[in-house]
């Protein structure tokens, strides 16, 4: 599905200003492209999903550097390809560097202002039905939903608990909420 270039330009401009709904729009619009690209490269669903999450995390962190002379999808795919190359290099060298406190302080914060439509739909559901629906998600999505909504941890606390960068947590939570909302809507 081709996205109207004017709509895309507007959403990118809003994302550069920190608009959460614009980030959601971009994630929803390009998730399948980036995930499909990675799945063809590495032929492992979990690894492809992890790299896709990291891609959007990096893209949202660096959105202000996006140059609109190039296609947004191409920019995302390039980020994704570079992340995969970096991952392969790390695996080959088997060096696992820890994130420093200084790097953690530099993490770009994606605003989390108003509840999204997915948030509203999720909170309106009967708890037992909701728990059944959550169990249909992949385990790492179940975990992030549990930590955020049932244990009420902050993004920072979830990041520390999962030992993942905060942007990865935010993107993973966005994706988990979207998938959960789709499951709920299918049953309605």
Give an overview in words:
- This protein is mostly helical and 188 residues long.
- It has two domains: 5-93, Orthogonal Bundle (Rna Polymerase Sigma Factor, Chain: A), CATH 1.10.1740.10; 101-187, Orthogonal Bundle (Arc Repressor Mutant, subunit A), CATH 1.10.10.
- It is 73% helix and 0% strand.
- The chain contains ten helices and no strands.
- The protein has helices at 5-16, 20-42, 45-61, 72-93, 101-105, 117-124, 127-134, 139-150, 155-162, 166-187.
- Helix 3 (45-61) crosses helix 10.
- 26% of the residues are buried.
Task: Summarize the topology.
Blueprint lengths: L4 H12 L3 H23 L2 H17 L10 H22 L7 H5 L11 H8 L2 H8 L4 H12 L4 H8 L3 H22 L1
Helix pairs in contact: 1-2, 2-3, 2-4, 3-4, 3-10, 6-10, 8-10, 9-10
Q: Tell me, what is the CATH class of the largest domain?
A: Mainly Alpha
Instruction: Let me know the largest β-sheet.
Output: none
Domain module count? 2
Output the helix-strand order: HHHHHHHHHH
Low-pLDDT residue spans? none
Protein name: RNA polymerase sigma factor
Pfam families: Sigma70_r2 (PF04542), Sigma70_r4_2 (PF08281)
Domain RNA polymerase sigma factor 70 region 4 type: 134-180
Keywords: Sigma factor, Transcription, Transcription regulation
